[in-house]
Amino acid sequence: MIGGAFEPGEQVTIRSLARLMQVSPTPAREALNRLAAEGALEFGRNRTLFVPRLQPDRIRELYQIRLPLEDFAARAALPHMGKAHVDALTQCVEQRIVALGQHDYRTALELNRDFSFSIFEAAQQPIALRILEGLWLLAGPMMNLLFPEYADHQLGIERAREQIRAIETRDVEALCQSLRTEREEAAELILTKVSRGEVARSSRPAMGAASRG
Hints:
Four Helix Bundle (Hemerythrin (Met), subunit A), mainly alpha
């Protein structure tokens, strides 16, 4: 879901999820139940499950909740981050650049999630981390609206580099400001496209295409 594998409004079945996850129906059914419990899927007619449609109020609410919580996590994380974290984050950015150059937006989104959660996990704040995981799950279906702009202009890459520099220099205010600016830029782009009626298209590969595990 975080990688934009399903479109807003799309029906999600045990079969489609099992195919995407490359698992049997039983774990797919368990995943569907969890996604519904988290609010990442909504019930429609006949108990069918759908990805929630994009609504401006929902988008704003998600970002308004995320901003202070991510700020809290980043402030708690910085004292625990060292060279190993910087090296891992730098490698993640390099992999994202390759994925964007190949228009592999699903992998780019997954790497973006990995980058951010490398910071949040360093905070050693399990309650905040659990909430952030849920918020990112809810935001997943809208993230495809960041493209192609995020690939053409590498907006997220520049913010990621800022965050790495802030970690290296132990500048917590610069780290938090870069995170906030990145989220605000993303929200503005997504809301603009939603207001124009643009639809977030699924980033899952076509049948038979390889996908990042």
